[in-house]
Amino acid sequence: MDEAIRIERLTKTFGGGRRALDEVALNVMPGEMVALIGASGSGKSTLMRHMAGFVAADPQPGGIEILGRPIQRDGRIVREVRQIRRDIGFVFQQFNLVGRMPVITNVLTGLLARVPVWRSLLFRFTPAERQAALAALAEVGIADLAFQRASTLSGGQQQRAALARTLVQGARIILADEPIASLDPESARKVMDMLARMNRDHKLTVVVSLHQVDVAMRYCARTVALHQGRVVYDGPSSALTPDLLRRLYGVQASELLNENSEDTEHADASPRAVSPEPADAQAAFLTSMSLSLT
């Protein structure tokens, strides 16, 4: 069986010679739900963006395969990246919804890479596709909000809409980059519950980056820990004791052990910020699908 994600000798160097990723090697099997943890600056978000083909690694031997197909190799993103990315649902910390559009339209943008270009430009969806979007919203518990503007939703509701978008997309892999970092504890719990249910019920492969070790232990059997761009632990989440974390991270371990007090205290009663609203349908397509390479 091919790995869902296979990473070999992945290195990324930014300006000034700082290595954000250093010879990272990692395999994730289909149907796994894996936590990616690390203190600020450890390389979690950089690694997630490489997995999705948003960023090219350094030009040296190594690469990433998604479901048996290379998405980048030796520092070059493959020409077929958009086709491969159809199977990847990326969930951002800031939701990436278009605020002025109804929730259901935001969810339907998950189909844009799979429909003819003329329909993607005009945002034309069939009754069956709209019904699928309503079913996805019902699955994440916000079907009653389908026709509200996305900007009126709370942060937790917007994140659940983003998860519904990945269901409509038909993604086989979900990459969730700090999906609960700006949510209050109850909203964070609901979002993590939804990710776990999607992993279990739809057999989706899920990689979720987190600051909170207790959340990783609660939801993921396996945790991969990054420190200064290197994998320093890959094993059972249950083995991540405070003593082990202190050995791995030193003083930064307190950030992982006490993050709840900082990142999840925000009230979720008011609407959250959404992505900048695009000027036209094509820009909305690029924003929603995150197809532009950075």
Q: How is the secondary structure organized here?
A:
Elements lengths: L4 E9 L5 E10 L4 E5 L6 H8 L11 E4 L2 E5 L2 E2 L3 H5 L2 E4 L11 H6 L8 H6 L4 H13 L15 H15 L3 E5 L7 H17 L3 E6 L2 H7 L2 E6 L2 E7 L5 H8 L3 H5 L2 H4 L17 H9 L5
Parallel strand pairs: 3-9, 3-10, 7-8, 8-9
Antiparallel strand pairs: 1-2, 1-4, 4-5, 5-6, 10-11
Helix pairs in contact: 5-6, 6-7
Fold-level CATH name = Rossmann fold
Topology as a string of helices (H) and strands (E): EEEHEEEHEHHHHEHEHEEHHHH
Euclidean distance between termini CA atoms: 32 Å
Sheet with the most strands: spatial strand order: 7-8-9-3-10-11
Total individual domains:
1
Unreliable runs: 259-294
CATH superfamily, please?
P-loop containing nucleotide triphosphate hydrolases
Helix percent band: 25-40%
Q: How many helical elements?
A: 12
Tell me the fraction of residues in β-strands, as a range: 15-25%
Give the quaternary arrangement of the chains. Answer: single chain
Tell how many strands the DSSP assignment holds.
Answer: 11
Q: Give the class from helix and strand content and strand pairing.
A: alpha/beta
Which outline best applies?
A: globular
Rounded Rg: 19 Å
Task: Please name the defining characteristics of this protein.
294 residues; alpha/beta; Rossmann fold; six-stranded mixed sheet; five-stranded antiparallel sheet; 11 strands; 35% helix; globular; ABC-type phosphonate transporter activity; cell inner membrane; ATP hydrolysis activity; transport
